[in-house]
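BUG: 3D viewer hangs when loading the predicted structure for this chain

Environment: internal workstation, default settings.
Expected: structure renders.
Actual: progress bar stalls at 90%.

Input used:
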Amino acid sequence: MLKQKNLISLAIATLAVVVIALAVQHSRKPVSDFSEQAAPLVAGLADHLNDVSRLLVTTANKNTVVTLVKKDGVWTVAEKGGYPADLGKLREYLLKLAESKLVEKKTAKAERYPDLGVSDISDPQAKGIAVGIDGLAAPVTFIAGVYNAQGGGTYVRRSGEEQSWLAGGNLIPDKEPANWLRKDLANIPSERIASVTITHADGKVLRVFKDKASDPHYTIADLPKGREPSSEFAANGLASVLAELKLDDVAASSDIAVPDKATMVRYATFDGVIVEARTWQVADKRYVAFSAAEDIERAQRHVDAELASKAADADAGKDKPAAADANSPAGAAGSPAATDAAKGEATAPAADAATDRAQRLAAITAEVEQLNATFKGWSFVLPGYKIGDIDKSMDDLLKPLEKKSTK
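Structure tokens produced before the viewer hung:
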């Protein structure tokens, strides 16, 4: 019996020693992987997105390729002369960073960094891209390495740390500055275009037009004798250039100026907006510079015609007014109430029409001002399919000449 008690006591003592040893060992361990996992990649970003004032994208050999800067509340792309940045694209990327969590620890050995793409960005052979963020409580820099599609994350290494991580999401930033530009330039649908006049640098002119907005196709002016359009809709594309117009690239006018000899295109709308474009070639790029103006007389004629049509439609839809009740004070012939009601019916529509006219004309003026705010000071590179309709010649719209028989 005594022997059994001694065995039990020995087992209890041994267990106690094991528990104490485990506790000591655990207390000497660094913070566990689990406690660091699920921590944000960029602490504080989620609550301070609007405080970010600069985003830097740097590639191998410390080559900064994209600099997005917020000044006076406006985001711009420094590498493109300070042209406005695409806020949607910028916000999308910042939200990705704000939502990204540390998923799994990876190597802390420098010789293994190239495998994950997280080598120091000063290395000319570095595969990763450094991302810098200013405006938070402290500047943030990390290297975005290889994207691991299976792991659903990007290998990253934060500035000043040897430890690399797999962080959630695709965090590799776009390293083409042109892709960070605000793309929208104008949106004037072809239905509004009354005429397009293209004057080439050699003096040759191509003009297409519509008499009415409801006309299905554009007419080619001054057709050469014996020539005819290639189709009834051959000229329609010329009027579509300003519809959903976006840029591919941009340069400041001070860097890429309009030459003396450039093709000039004039777009005139039915409602009095004039857009002029000048286009020219520089190396492998064709640039276009725009300006806008208002044809006030045409705008007034257009608005007046619209209001007249609106009034005619309203008159046609009116029912015959009901006879006034002579027994009521308001309906008694010659009563003050009846006289006031008649005055009100006569003056209210006139006042409404005047307000409507002023608002419509003001909207046209505001559109011209907005276009010039976008155009002024810049030379644009447009998508190829738009350029194709800017630089057309008469021959491009006509059936080819029949070759004369040599017999």
